[in-house]
Amino acid sequence: MSHAPAGIPLFKVFMAPEAALLPRLREVLYSGQISEGAPVAEFEQRFGAFAGQPHILSFYSGTAALHVALLLAGAGPGDEVVSTAMTAEPTNLAVLHAGARVVWADVDPRNGNLSAAAIEAKITPRTRAILVVHYGGIPASMAAIRAVAARHGVPVIEDAAHALGARYAGLPIGSQSEYAMYSLQAIKHLTTVDGGMLACRNAGDLPRGRRLRWFGIDRAAPRTEVDVAEVGYKYHMNNVNATIGLVQLEHIAPVIERHIANGKYFDAALRGIPGIELCAWDAAAEPSYWFYTVLAERRDELARRLTELGIGNSLAHKRNDRHSVFAASRCELPGLDRFYASMLHIPCGWWLDEAGRERIVSALRQGW
Ligand SMILES: *Cc1c(COP(=O)(O)O)cnc(C)c1O
Prior knowledge:
The protein is of the alpha/beta class.
């Protein structure tokens, strides 16, 4: 028997209490209608109210939502999408799904998010979209990025997979741009087991978005009268995932508040610890702290030490420019080199209580 305290995981799935979830789930499972129907429409509407976005399309994954956002933005073969390599693979695989080319822009070494000046340097007449990730839940510098996008007339797609509950300039994350994607995958702030949501600024995008997510067919029209005029996909969300989402939404506010409270605690408690630099961001940005990123000297040694102490930690993502599938996009990214050499993610989520976060702070204070 070990007497070591239980480990603190880096990620943990939040699921609403059984008493709230199981009756609703049982009802939908045996309702005879488990594909896309009324619960999906209701979830889109309620998620939109929660996320502060009026025009929402649901999908079976965030990756599918990003693919459709890219198609709606007009990205296809021969086109370029300016993006970040400091992200999960789906961000950039979606660009390849759309048939476009990924063009890397460099990141701000203080937080891993794209820098506006680096984006502008990579815009060409073939650029169809700028794909911005709010890495780890820290909002990117949207004011400066919007200015670049406006100057060049290029739409912005925000990948807010890590950032539900974050705000920028007083508004919910995703409000600044033509498109915003939220992932509802298992370990994100809010999960439906799997799922993704796309907010569109322009309501005129919704009919084509709905067709693209379901075989190119308008589900509302009589089936024999529809004409498939464009290749669509099987990307829709079903009633079962939507029902989980509806129940999750009723419980998610305190979960996100807990991520934010833990993050703010670390912002104060980790300041000044030798060998640790904290991330920095715009004054207008309010992160939702999916995980907490520190920039550490002798990072790999710190990671080993935390693992010995049972404190979850990880790089979480391999810089995407190192994958063979993106070989054609390789270029110098000195800001990313710096961030990637020192970043380490530590737990910050709803499962971290006061004793847990103090354990993390004292582990870091002890040195490594
Ligand atoms: C999770 C994630 C996605 C989308 O993932 P799905 O699993 O398809 O919902 C996209 N971008 C980032 C940065 C992610 O972490």
